[in-house]
Design a protein that fits this description.
By secondary structure, the chain is α+β, with helices and mostly antiparallel strands. The chain has two domains: about 70 residues, 434 Repressor (Amino-terminal Domain); about 170 residues, Endonuclease Chain A (Endonuclease, Chain A, 2-Layer Sandwich), CATH 3.30.870. Strands 1-7-6-5-2-3-4-8 form an eight-stranded mixed beta sheet, sandwiched between helices. The radius of gyration is 23 Å and the shape is elongated.
């Protein structure tokens, strides 16, 4: 169905299809498709609505609600442009609420070691019956050294940081319900699981983890994003090497 609201808004604002194409960096044929009823991507809708001084919901009724429904059904709670802007209290809140399954998949996870009470909290979680699994990078693996080069910090830097992480989490290796392993996989994402909630930090070539996006996911009744990344965690866990002394 033709989008008469968009066409009328263009006329009122005296914006031609060619001008709209220039604004959105699309071709005129794409604008014609929008006028014919195709819905632009969210970022493009925002740009158009701002230029035409109209509400998105007026120009494309229900489009935002449909997008929200898709995110909800997939298990997306919140998207963060960088891991660095994830609220610090969210990490604490998710860890505090977890009672059954805590899983950490990283190469280093150095920011976690900056929490002075983390080890004590993990000890208490394990004592209460929670399963704690920590996956750190294998310092000599090709994937680790390549990641260090890709980030422009030299081939041995991440390996040295892994040594620090191994030392930090080393006291946990003999604790019942806690296991630490080292993995050699290419780390496409860092994963932090807290029962049915998860923060996933997808990695971006040439960027350090804090500068890459983060997603807060929640397990849904049907197979969704949470399950996708949970399956990935389990695959890495099966391939990883238990640390000496681990139970």
């Amino acid at each position: 169905m033709a989008n008469d609201r968009l066409r009328d808004a263009l006329d009122r604002s005296r914006v031609s299809p060619a001008e709209l194409a220039l604004l959105t960096e699309c071709d005129v044929k794409t604008v014609s498709r929008w006028l014919a009823g195709r819905v632009p991507h969210p970022r493009t809708r925002f740009m158009i609505a701002k230029r035409l001084k109209e509400d998105e919901d007026f120009l494309w009724p229900g489009a935002q609600r449909a997008a929200d429904d898709v995110s909800s059904s997939a298990g997306m709670v919140q998207f963060y442009p960088t891991r660095g802007v994830v609220p610090p209290n969210l990490w604490d809140r998710l860890l505090d609420a977890a009672t059954a399954d805590v899983g950490i998949l990283v190469y280093v996870g150095m920011f976690l070691t900056e929490k002075p009470d983390l080890l004590d909290r993990l000890h208490k979680k394990a004592a209460a019956g929670a399963r704690i699994r920590i996956l750190l990078g294998e310092r000599e693996s090709i994937a680790v050294k390549q990641r260090s080069v890709d980030e422009g910090i030299g081939p041995e830097t991440i390996s040295a940081k892994i040594d620090q992480a191994n030392a930090f989490f080393g006291s946990l290796t003999d604790v019942p319900n806690i296991e630490v392993r080292n993995h050699s996989t290419v780390l496409y994402n860092s994963i932090y699981r807290f029962d049915n909630d998860m923060i996933v930090n997808p990695h971006v070539y040439g960027k350090t983890a804090p500068m890459a996006p983060a997603m807060h996911l929640r397990k849904t009744a049907t197979y969704g994003l949470f399950n996708t990344y949970s399956d990935s965690f389990e695959a890495v866990w099966r391939s990883a090497t238990p640390k000496a002394g681990a139970r």
